[in-house]
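Fold this complex.
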Amino acid sequence: AQTVTQSQPEMSVQEAETVTLSCTYDTSENNYYLFWYKQPPSRQMILVIRQEAYKQQNATENRFSVNFQKAAKSFSLKISDSQLGDTAMYFCAFALYNQGGKLIFGQGTELSVKP
Amino acid sequence: GAGVSQSPRYKVTKRGQDVALRCDPISGHVSLYWYRQALGQGPEFLTYFNYEAQQDKSGLPNDRFSAERPEGSISTLTIQRTEQRDSAMYRCASSPGQGYLANGYTFGSGTRLTVV
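Structure:
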């Protein structure tokens, strides 16, 4: 069975600083996707960034980037130039390519950006 | 529609009552997923459909939970004889199809169910 672990329940960062959120996962499969979702106080689920396991290059979306270490089964999220609007719960998620898109989520990391 | 629509937004029900939660996916989306999210936890997969066919219901916790999508569009998640432990946010998501997983999929705003 696949599992996703986020070992940091809470983190805080000063505005304009950089923060890294950790995520590890466990699978014996080779073909899968990894995602980071953001859940602000409004409790929407917003896709932040995604990574396909067969791609070696780390994904980047503006201020958000990932460090994907396939051998170590690690998928951390780096937020640069943190903004107050980044305050949210962040979930790491995993999906096998051949399981119809079923997402397995971690427990979440609550990030607070302080002015 | 423009987004995934769920109704009601909030539902308070008495223990033992049945509830039906509705999801209206983005028009034309083939795949529809149901998740449950307890407070302070990540979403937990319940079931999913491709068109009207229920492909995987392995996440449904017990036989009080059922889901249908009879015409391949709107879906209903039904919980019979509700219990307090069923209290959670129930989220629906849709995607154009399995082959679009790389884009993630679109979540609805959820239905917050409280069983008293």
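The longest strand of chain B covers residues 88-95.
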